[in-house]
Amino acid sequence: AVRCYESLILKAEGKVESDFFCQLGHFNLLLEDYPKALSAYQRYYSLQSDYWKNAAFLYGLGLVYFHYNAFQWAIKAFQEVLYVDPSFCRAKEIHLRLGLMFKVNTDYESSLKHFQLALVDCNPCTLSNAEIQFHIAHLYETQRKYHSAKEAYEQLLQAENLSVQVKATVLQQLGWMHHTVDLLGDKATKESFAIQYLQKSLEADPNSGQSWYFLGRCYSSIGKVQDAFISYRQSIDKSEASADTWCSIGVLYQQQNQPMDALQAYICAVQLDHGHAAAWMDLGTLYESCNQPQDAIKCYLNASRSKNCSNTSALAARIKYLQGLHKGQSSHLAGPNGERPLSSTGPSQHLQAAGSGIQNQNGHPSLPSNSVTQGAALNHLSSHTATSGGQQGITLTKESKPSGNTLMVPETSRHSGETPNSTANVEGLPNHVHQVMADAVCSPSHGDSKSPGLLSSDNPQLSALLMGKANNNVGPGTCDKVNNIHPTVHTKTDNSVASSPSSAISTATPSPKSTEQTTTNSVTSLNSPHSGLHTINGEGMEESQSPIKTDLLLVSNKPSPQIIPSMSVSIYPSSAEVLKACRNLGKNGLSNSSVLLDKCPPPRPPSSPYPPLPKDKLNPPTPSIYLENKRDAFFPPLHQFCTNPNNPVTVIRGLAGALKLDLGLFSTKTLVEANNEHIVEVRTQLLQPADENWDPTGTKKIWHCESNRSHTTIAKYAQYQASSFQESLREENEKRSHHKDHSDNESTSSDNSGKRRKGPFKTIKFGTNIDLSDDKKWKLQLHELTKLPAFVRVVSAGNLLSHVGHTILGMNTVQLYMKVPGSRTPGHQENNNFCSVNINIGPGDCEWFVVPEGYWGVLNDFCEKNNLNFLMGSWWPNLEDLYEANVPVYRFIQRPGDLVWINAGTVHWVQAIGWCNNIAWNVGPLTACQYKLAVERYEWNKLQSVKSIVPMVHLSWNMARNIKVSDPKLFEMIKYCLLRTLKQCQTLREALIAAGKEIIWHGRTKEEPAHYCSICEVEVFDLLFVTNESNSRKTYIVHCQDCARKSSGNLENFVVLEQYKMEDLMQVYDQFTLVSEINM
Predict the structure, then answer these.
(1) Alpha-carbon Rg for the chain in angstroms
(2) Tens of pLDDT along 788-847?
(3) pTM
(4) Does the keyword Coiled coil apply (predicted)?
(5) What is the C-alpha to C-alpha distance for residues 878 and 860, in angstroms, rounded to an integer?
(6) Which stretches of 714-854 are assigned E, i.e. beta strand?
(7) What is the extent of the structural domain holding 919?
(8) Domain CATH for 692
(9) Residues 380, 479: contact at Cβ < 8 Å?
């Protein structure tokens, strides 16, 4: 077929139908000729302006990107497939791969969602449901949700027909969790369970070197030295070259006071992996304990040069200290058992062989000694690979690798509880497990740094675990610069077995044609020597210029499509004509249910506004209005000024004073008196300077913002807020007295303050999202807010959110925030790009950072580069990055009584300077700009598989019922939304009736919320698909049509409930007309 197409293209002499190139790409993909497939897809892309309508093309392109580990681009291609065709026949495969890629990128919430979407789909895909369930359980573990993980693993063990490989790995995972996680019981019970699970795992798979290794670690922790040695020996026999195992053996020998044996073991470890920082550090401490400081210095130097050594400063200090000592002076520092000859400045996070060289084996979580530098390939994917926790099924990629070992491995971060018997540890020396990257980005070479979720290719059968395949030929396949995970049909022989758990994702690549399904059972090769892949830049590929890069540039440089239709003529068909046109249009009425256009391209973030602003314009003055009296507050131009799209933010100064608002009603004291047991969501954060965001060690600036969630009550948080203030007063008094004593030494104090800024940082708690919607509990507070001008009120006729018809907590209701200095609201745009109102109650100030809506695409790009989810992640922009990208930042102080108006789509982040409370809510001005941005975000959310909290279809129909519109642009957009949904409802009705499916009248109750699919969370309007069981129980768990068909192809398990009579919708549609301002 390929030869046929190639000859046709040659004969056509340039006048070729674009579809030929698409088909050629599909066939080359099936033949695993990725360079040619990419080249053909490129040609199709360049020739076909509406390429995005072809879901099969996007799917094939996504598979090629996936093969090259270009995950950022693969994710975009796959998301676009689901957007243009939610019922695509390979949707389950797409959700699986999206789950794997998001897992690598440490976006665990998105990963979990896609795995769950794959699990409910009854169609076939590369992995079995049991293997997908394993990923879900492992995600819980990665997120430190240990009880959920344990429950999920145990539930998986109960599954029927569970493959031996999956069973062995689940048991291995449970064993390692019990060894490392304190929450699972007392030490004796945990170790007992850990040993039982690992023994059962070895019964299922006696050839797993990883399980033997873990068993050795467990025996070592309870003092069964002989059993530990036997287990390590078995591990060496099964997995041969494992630097981790030899390092652990060295620690065990050192504990037994056998320095020569320990020396040999450490040497074995560093010979196997010269970059094994832990082994070098342990070897250094061994030399120190034997009074050989010069040799120790050499070892520490090697450790500090290792790519895994995340904190070289402490090592450098130790080296400097040793160099300054006389040779004889160091001997008294080390105890007879080789205890760590280093002084401790705080509780150590380091575990013995794990990089501290401490003797107690209990805490030795070995280092993933082969963590890959950015863009580099995994060099040790041979049979000694001992991967335990990592990304099941996916390895490190250029996109997913953070620089430095900064992400904590949840499974091992608890190891600090297993304290070594050394008398002193060193704070700051990198523990090679604790500071390893999250499993998603670790080299699979040394798994015990991670939990055993990643399969270990020390056992050839295990390396193909999730494929259920076994092969004894494991080759040390490496790839020059790319860790390619092949979505391939692997038909080659010899060293073709995946030498890493990536085989878990292997894929028999199906035909990208949506009408075909090709399946094979072959295992994919990861980094196999004959993969034919050389670099991500395209060297060795069919075209000399990088096919990947070229294609990416092509995609990114296409002009963004106009999303909202610009209707020059406001003539719409009547509802009767719409319905007539919908007759017999087929079954998939809800597919591609974009509110915007019949055939609209997937939404894309805007490119940075052009021309770029000069550097002196990047700190613009914040638009501010100063109010002196009530009349000023109700002056109409104030409303116009705030809603003007040219003003991304407006600060209304002195509002509370002008309106005589009683802000004391929202003070902490009053809140406690009113409802002291009211629930408060708490975010635990690090206290940092407002314009900076450092990693927890204070060594580098990052975008990820630590913000862990818990809950408390208003009374308890008030107590914390007060004690925090008193503690600050105490510290201030101490500083003053200290300053008097050292008033002549200013430079010292400034040096100290500089060091304080870079960690370790103090932990603070921020009380957020406190719901004040109950007008019985908060009657006085809510009544006070009715004094505000209509355009900023919580409820008003001109507020779109007042027409939703039901409560959306925090949007059309008030939320309260209780803060201590440093409390952060990370970067975000408001839900569905609505405007927001925020009033500072005081007594302290808040600092705001604001970026205009047009630059959100730039911030989205920064989030992608930093492996953060723009919509759902927690991020704090690095101002230096923004200024370098010519992004303007408004920066201002909000004082007590000031109201901040955030305009539609504005990006912002806020930090409390003092102790204060704030109240906030959203409003939707009745403008074309607000509606347009809300609908654009509705579509972007759909592309990103994120729920839109504002149901825009439901809202648009309510607006048509309740509001007279005189703005032609706003009218056009609302009318078009009505037209789209009317057509979809009628088309779906026709299809269901034609298929003999009964539609049952259900109706709507007053204030009934809009409905969302319980599976994919898209809005479902009018026709609700409910399972028979849910209908009979009257629980009404709603599905969209696409999710209903995925779980039951002919919908036999579903009933269809109708909420609106078609005649009613037709009437609303026909009666919604543009009115002149005179008639309003």
Answers:
(1) 31
(2) 999 999 999 999 999 999 999 999 999 999 999 999 999 999 999 999 999 999 999 999
(3) 0.76
(4) no
(5) 13
(6) 763-771, 815-819, 824-828, 835-843, 846-851
(7) 619-730+761-925
(8) 2.60.120.650
(9) no
